[in-house]
Amino acid sequence: MKDLLRISLLILFISGILLIINKELNESSGKTSKGSITVYNWGEYIDPSLLKKFEKETGIRVVYETFDSNEGMMGKIEQGGTAYDITMPSEYMVEMMQEKDLLIPLDYNKIPNVKNIDPYFLDLPFDPKNTYSLPYFWGTVGIAYNPTLLEGQTFEQWDDLWDPSLKQDVILVDSAREVIGMGLNSMGYSLNSTNLTELRKATDKLKTMSPNIKAVIGDEVTPLMINNEAAIALTWSGQAADMMSENEDINYSVPKEGSNLWFDNIVIPRTVKNIDGAYAFINFMLDPDNAAQNTDFVGYSTPNMAALELMDPEVTSDERFYPDKESREHLEVYKDLGLKMLGHYNELFLEFKMDMK
């Protein structure tokens, strides 16, 4: 019994010492623990060192989780099993989440760094007055291609992908809005079309491209293009930038008929538990130094004007990734088409893929 008592006292003594040491360490660093936040983001869509920097500066621990589709992200937030404090939906998903009352309105008194965002990227139709969201990254949908593997072709219009010489050369991203949108744009229609006749014509035209299609895949396209195992890909501008950073032969273009101008956005979902931590994180990510560092790491285009001034001018002046305002006039932002119409797009996309087999 005495031995047990001695052991208990020793444990209490050690625990007390550890608590004192921890308190002194916190005090010497000038901050104490302020809880944690859970950030739900796309994969490889933030510089990990910024998460550590945020933790060090604020004393707020970051739990970081990733998703691979807007729909999967919204479904998990709807279920409410995890208390996410921050997430990054695309523009049409901001609309859908707002309609389902899954987002809280932003308090701009707590986000002074909002001043750094280019007004051009604010007050857009999917979230007027940015009531619920702020832009995180933006970009375009276009064509990545390697002219050294082709016969000198360039891709200034969508119809170039139908060239008979490109048999089994084209890779398409596995996404209904992007592929059906390409078909619509190639015929001069809006990529937000809800006209069933236009959608049918676009799908039928896409089917005639089948001989040229090598695969319909996702992120796997990047290593294929880098390693010269594929010559052409319908892809997003940031993914193209990754390819180009590893293979200098690759180029990227946005066809002149028009394409998608997309946005991924920072929002605070209704599941938030640490509201102050969420605002601290948003404001931190909008700091010019942090935004510039994050943009260099991720490779997509930043809406942060102050960050652009800190970045390599060769990058920020590259109109393939930072198109001027005149070029942007030919681009469209995805609209929320509603679940029924989105389902129709998915059905047409599946029909197109089945026709390839």
Keywords:
seven-stranded mixed β-sheet, three-stranded parallel β-sheet, 10 strands
Notes on the structure:
The protein is α/β, with parallel strands linked by helices and 357 residues long. It is 42% helix and 16% strand. It contains 14 helices and ten strands. The strands form two sheets. Strands 4, 5, 6, 7, 8, 9 and 10 form a seven-stranded mixed beta sheet that branches. The protein has a three-stranded parallel beta sheet with strand order 2-1-3. The longest helix has 28 residues, at 2-29.
Please state roughly what percent of the residues sit in beta strands, choosing from under 5%, 5-15%, 15-25%, 25-35%, 35-45% or over 45%: 15-25%
User: What is the succession of H and E elements?
Assistant: HEHEHEHEEHHEHEHEEHHHHHEH
What is the gyration radius calculated from CA atoms?
A: 24 Å
Task: Report helical residue fraction.
Answer: 40-55%
> Can you count the helices?
14
